[in-house]
Amino acid sequence: MSADNPQDKDGQGPARLPDFQRHITGHNDAGKAIFESSTADPSVSLFNDTIAFNTVYTTSEMPLSLNDNQDLKAHKELLSSGHLGLVNPNGTVCRVVDFGPGTDPLMHRTQSLDYGVVLEGELELILDDGANKILKKGDVVVQRATYHGWRNTSKTEWARMLFVLQHCQKVLVNGRELGEDLSNAGGEQDRLAVHHQ
Fold first, then answer.
1. Range in 92-101, 112-121, 176-185 with the lowest mean pLDDT
2. Left, alpha or beta for 102 (phi > 0: left; psi -120 to 50: alpha)?
3. N or C of the chain: less Cβ packing under 10 Å?
């Protein structure tokens, strides 16, 4: 897939959204702002190419140290370790998720506070009590560790969201712990689960 002519793997059906450029800034030895890197990072396809993930950036501590590029090094090490799930314990994950047309919602819960922004298309947010909201381009969701799913409302176009997931304390409701639940992920569950080191 190229950014100029995005297609699904067999060239049939709706075109995928193009990959995007990620620009990371930093400082030179004089303290002036510089671009550390500018790269096109391809997405990883999941669920038979109906969803695509791109991990833009991660942090692994709070407050974060930017000194000596410690955060850049930690991000690269975490990605290369293969131990990143949906959430990064004691840190954050910035991720772009593309949803294929008519994709069935994957109901799930993460142990995180998530900020979600619709970048392209229209998505339905479905909660486990049956409530739902239709979100349009530019809409924002604050997802507070609830059991939920996303459905692309279009039958012809892909949709894209930007998420920032922040690890949170265990959620207790009336003394019952509501932990991470990826049981509906089927064969992709191991790829999505948080890997504690």
1. 176-185
2. left
3. C
Confidence of residue 75 (pLDDT cuts 50, 70, 90): very high
pTM: 0.84
User: Average pLDDT of 169-183?
Assistant: 90
pLDDT at 2 over 70: no
Alpha-carbon distance values, 141 to 101, 118, 158 (Å)? 21, 9, 19
Pairing mode, strands 171-173 and 51-59: unpaired
147 in Cβ contact with 109 (< 8 Å): yes
DSSP 13-68: SSPPPPP-EEEEEEE-TTS-EEEEEEEE---EEETTTTEEEEEEEEE-SSSPP-GG
Pull the structure tokens for residue 108: 């799930």
User: CA nearest 51: which of 21, 95, 5?
Assistant: 95
Distances (CA, A) of 164 to 5, 18, 88, 112, 156: 28, 20, 11, 9, 27
Question: What gap in Å lies between CA 167 and CA 151, rounded to an integer?
Answer: 24
CA distance 159 to 136: 10
Q: Tokens 């089927």 appear where?
A: 186
Q: Is the pLDDT of residue 5 over 90?
A: no
